[in-house]
Structure formats: structure tokens, C-alpha cells
Specification:
2 copies of one chain form a homodimer. The first copy, chain A, is mostly beta strands. The first copy, chain A, has 4 helices and 13 strands. Chain A has a 7-stranded antiparallel β-sheet with strand order 4-3-7-10-11-6-5. A 3-stranded antiparallel β-sheet of chain A has the order 2-12-13, with no helix packed on it. The longest helix of chain A has 9 residues. Chain A is globular. The N and C termini of chain A lie far apart (37 Å). The relative contact order of chain A is 0.19.
């Protein structure tokens, strides 16, 4: 039996990304769960930010941002970037996270996050008091230590150990065990006629 | 040491949602990982769909869609909705999944998915050969059996047991254990002055 729960902003699960705008000298960062890839032509990320966010103003300054994936070991730092206010606090100084120059855009990447994405803003769409920010992915970086093979581009999930955010419950979780391979598990339903 | 991996459409992790358009009599569904909440004013979902998708045409017919979260036990069915072609296959008949009328929109919900979101399309944004579809969340439903408390609106993650998609590796995973509480773990970095 299903129960109606009302029009809540819930989807399970969500990623945990440290989004950074501004410059190497003056970065501004925020914990973001409302973010995902939405296109591959070109590779594009979409995220929803409250219009009032300092980080959004910093993103507009250089028309760029970075998306940095922390490991579960950095959950306290990540959470701090969500609960503190960049107008009153130097979030990087207080948490001990640091930034470095990326390769393609002015917004810097977070050194302590093992996976980093550089984005150039291509569009902003207003949705009430939020702004949907669309960014073209112009480069990605990974710590060599989390790659499956040093010469490849696949990331080992056990080594990246990314966080997952659970809306409503307001909790962070780890990834669990592998269930199945995509584009494979469903083949048992493919009828011989359709092949 | 960081390594540049190029402008790839990777973000870790992504959700696994069965998106359904069309009608109760003629539903069209698709496995979607490029989806998330992006606003709460009003509650809004954004997702990236290839322009050529049957499901996008079905969504346009009724200007509505539903987002249905399968449990890990339905991974084969979910994967089948991703690898098969709705123009050639009746995905619901082949996989055994079924639809029911929702409460607010014409697009039906998936009975076997324990969490369901009804959305009304508010905007489409073209990004190359993809369309970013924005939908206002007008209702959510959960199986009573997955609620933390029967009278509440919180979903028990162990009972929902949602899938997580890992891009690049092309694998489905479960959620792992809780790491920390959000809006709490980061308080240790808050200096007394800032409070």
C-alpha cells in the first residue's frame, strides 16, 4: 500500500560535492547535494544553488566553478562547508582544506578531494529563489592513487570512497557492495525476437 | 599527485531512477542516472535525456513524468529499461513491472518501485543532443512498508535499499553504512567567534 507524502524535494540517494568558485587567492566553497551530469554533448553539469549563496556570486565573478568529490574520511570538513557561512567564516582556513590552480578555468580545485571537475558556466536558469547553474565540463582530475590502473582513466570506488547524501534523514553514507553490472544484468529479459 | 583525465561526464555517485511518461494505458519508461533535485521553490527535479528518446516524446504528450526508485532486488528490471528500446519492446510486459494511476499527473507510477515522485514539466532546456527537462514535484508516494514510522514521512533507507550508479565502471551498488549526521559532523570546525 502506498502513502502520499506531499510534494517534497526528495530523491534517493544524492552525491556530495564540494563546489568552489572565485579564485586561487579568494576561493568560495559550498557543500552541494543537488548536482549531477545532464548531457554529454558537451559534457555538462547542472546544479541548484540558492540565489543568496556567496559561492554563486563567486562563480559569477570568473564564470567558472569546480566540483570536488571528498572521500568519506573528510565528512566533517564537507559538512562544515554546508553549515557555515562564507560571508562570516574563511571555510578553507577553519577546515584546513586547501586549493590549487586547475588546468582550464580560474576557479581552483580542492587539493584534499581525490576527484575534481572543472566547469565553465554556460547558462543560468532561475527557478524560484534558486538558480540552476549549467557548467560545461572542460577537464577532470583524479589523484593517481585512486585510479584502477595508473595508465587508465577509471576510478577505483573503494579508494575514492565517496559520500552519499540521504535527504530527509539528513545523513551521510558510504557506498555499499556491487550489485550488478550495468548494460548486462537486464539482458535476461531481452526476448530472442528483439535481438 | 593528480592526473588530468579529460572532459568526461563523470560524477560519483549517481542515483538510479525509472522515469515514466505517457499514460496508464501506454506508458513509456527509461532508466535514468542523470537526475536530481535542483530547487525547493517550488520543489523541482532536473534530468538530462537524449532528444531521440521515446520516453521524452511520451513525456511531452502529457507534459508530465514520474520518477520511481527501485530497490536493489529489481536491478535486473531497472537495467533492462536502460538497455532495451521502447520502440521495439514493451518494456513493462517483458520485465513484469506494472503501472498504476498517480494522484496528480497523467504519467503513471511504477507499482513495484517503493518510492515515487510525480512531476509536471515546467521547462525544457536544449543542451546539444540532450534536453534538460525540469519538472515540478507535485506529489511523492512511498510504500507504507518502507516508512520509518507509519505516521511519518521519513523513508527507512535499509528498507528502500536504493541503487547507486557508478559511471565509468558501469556498475550498480547498494548504499553502505552511515558515516555521520549532516549539519552536525562539521560543527567541530566552527570557531567560538563565529557562533
Amino acid at each position: 500500500m502506498k502513502k502520499r507524502l506531499g510534494p517534497a524535494e526528495r530523491l534517493y540517494p544524492m552525491p556530495c560535492a564540494l563546489v568552489v568558485g572565485g579564485t586561487l587567492e579568494k576561493p568560495a566553497g559550498l557543500a552541494v547535494a543537488w548536482i549531477n551530469v545532464v548531457s554529454s554533448t558537451p559534457p555538462t553539469i547542472a546544479m541548484g544553488l540558492r540565489e543568496s549563496r556567496n559561492t554563486l556570486a563567486a562563480i559569477r565573478e570568473t564564470n567558472s566553478f569546480t566540483v570536488n568529490i571528498p572521500s568519506a574520511a573528510r565528512v566533517d570538513e564537507f559538512d562544515f562547508f554546508g553549515l557555515s557561512n562564507g560571508a562570516k567564516t574563511d571555510k578553507f582556513a577553519e577546515s584546513g582544506l586547501s586549493v590549487a590552480r586547475g588546468a582550464m578555468v580560474e576557479a581552483p580545485i580542492v587539493v584534499e578531494c581525490p576527484f575534481n571537475i572543472e566547469c565553465r558556466v554556460i547558462q543560468e536558469v532561475p527557478i524560484g529563489s534558486y538558480r540552476l547553474v549549467l557548467g560545461e565540463i572542460v577537464e577532470t582530475h583524479a589523484d593517481v592513487s585512486i585510479l584502477k590502473e595508473p595508465e587508465g582513466d577509471l576510478v577505483n570506488m573503494e579508494l575514492l570512497d565517496p559520500l552519499v547524501y540521504i535527504a530527509g534523514m539528513r545523513e551521510y553514507r558510504r557506498l555499499g557492495e556491487k550489485v550488478a553490472d550495468a548494460y548486462t544484468a537486464g539482458k535476461r529479459f531481452v526476448s530472442p525476437d528483439a535481438q
